[in-house]
Amino acid sequence: MSSGVIRIRGARQHNLKNLDLDIRTGEMTVVTGPSGSGKSSLVFDTLYAEGQRRYVETFSAYARQFLDRMDRPAVDRVDGVPPAIAIDQTNPVRTSRSTVGTMTELNDHLKLLFARAAQLFDKQTALAVRHDSPETIYADLLVRAAAVGDPRLVFTFPAELPADTSAEQQEQWLSASGFTRVQAERVEGAKKILDVVADRVRVASAEKVRVLEAIELALKRGSGRLNVFVGEDGTLWRYSTGLHCPESNLRYADPQPALFSFNSAYGACDTCRGFGRVIGVDMGLVIPDVRKTLRQGAIKTMQTPAWQDGHEDMLRYAGEAGIPRDTPWSQLTAAQRDWVIEGTPNWTGNWNKQWYGVRRFLATWRARPTRCTSACSCPSTAATRAATAAAARG
Question: How confident is the model at residue 220 (pLDDT cuts 50, 70, 90)?
């Protein structure tokens, strides 16, 4: 909201005595005072009542009959008041997931807005993902081909065969399928991927019908995927149908309003289940005194007789890795602290030959004392509390 001023003149609601007041918008304003001083009369019965009354008056007479109407407060003039939302001080919160948006039902409108108007971006490549059709692909090809001088385009589709397919078997498969050319081939795991040629044209000079037929054929035989090889330099343009990113090969579901609600199992973060906080290891409790060195017991949780072996392992591996054991924790570098907490880089799971790290030590069911854990922000989606699929839409 742009910064402005709400001007209240001559407020006499309840125990207010001709109060004149200016309140800046776009800022947080706190109204305080002893009991009976008129805080609620000013905020709820004057400011909110007038804002809500003016908002309701913007609707038609037919719509107003279904809305709660508020009486005009006892005030000479109120200028610059926007539509208002009020949450009463009686603590109507029902669950820890409740927010201003859920309590005022604004979230219901926002969910519909995002489900209908949001644009999807791939979570790996950050490229826009949309529903493509042969017509939209053709239009995009015209623009891209014109920008690079209208080179010859080779329309191909990916075909999967077993990795041990011989050249003779591959030729037989192509012949049986009605195709003769393969633009490129590669092996991915146990599969051989062939880029089978559907057609070769220059888009600007070719008939639209022919180009559309090539696109439709490639999409049909390639399970909704089309690879276009550009000229002779090996440039590749990828297309696909549905909410699928051809660059990352990730497919997305059509958005539903529930996807944008952390109160829904469909839209809540898988890690924190929509609460925004998880119970995890608090390093401030694990290392409470940063003035101590590793040898002096900076890692407090390892200073009990039961876990003395872990402390000795850390000191031994630290010496081998060149990590200072007699330097205060506060003076260690970020990389040295990371080695202590996360363990040896590229840890392979060999507990007897590598330092496993404080975090893995505490993650074992035997070693994780409750005094080292606390509620902390969700590492996945601390701010939104929503699933990653919702975060991919903006």
Answer: very high
pLDDT at 345: 86
The closest of 229, 254, 231, 274 to 99, measured between CA atoms, is 274
Per the listing, tokens 């390892």 go with 302
What is the 3-state composition of the chain as percent helix, strand, coil, each rounded to the nearest 5?
35, 20, 45
pLDDT digits (tens, 9 = 90+) for 292-313: 999 998 888 788 887 788 888 8
- Using DSSP's 3-state secondary structure scheme, residue 227 falls into strand
pLDDT, greater one: 304 or 219: 219
Evaluate whether 191 touches 163 at the Cβ level (below 8 Å).
yes
Please give the Cα distance from 141 to 134 (Å, whole number).
Answer: 10
Amino acid at 354: Q
User: What is the DSSP annotation of 31-100?
Assistant: ---STTSSHHHHIIIIIIHHHHHHHHHTS-HHHHTTS---PPPS-SEEESPPP-----TT----STT--H
Residues of the chain with pLDDT > 70, as a percent, come to: 84
Domain 279-377 bears CATH identifier 1.10.8: yes
What architecture is the 132-241 domain classified under in CATH? 2-Layer Sandwich (3.30)
3-class secondary structure, 250: strand
In angstroms, the CA 7 to CA 50 distance is: 12
Domain boundaries, the chain: 5-79, 132-241, 279-377
Q: From CA 302, how far away is CA 315, in angstroms rounded?
A: 11
pTM, two decimal places? 0.52
Distances (CA, A) of 19 to 46, 78, 269: 11, 11, 48
Note whether 328 and 295 are within 8 A (CB): no
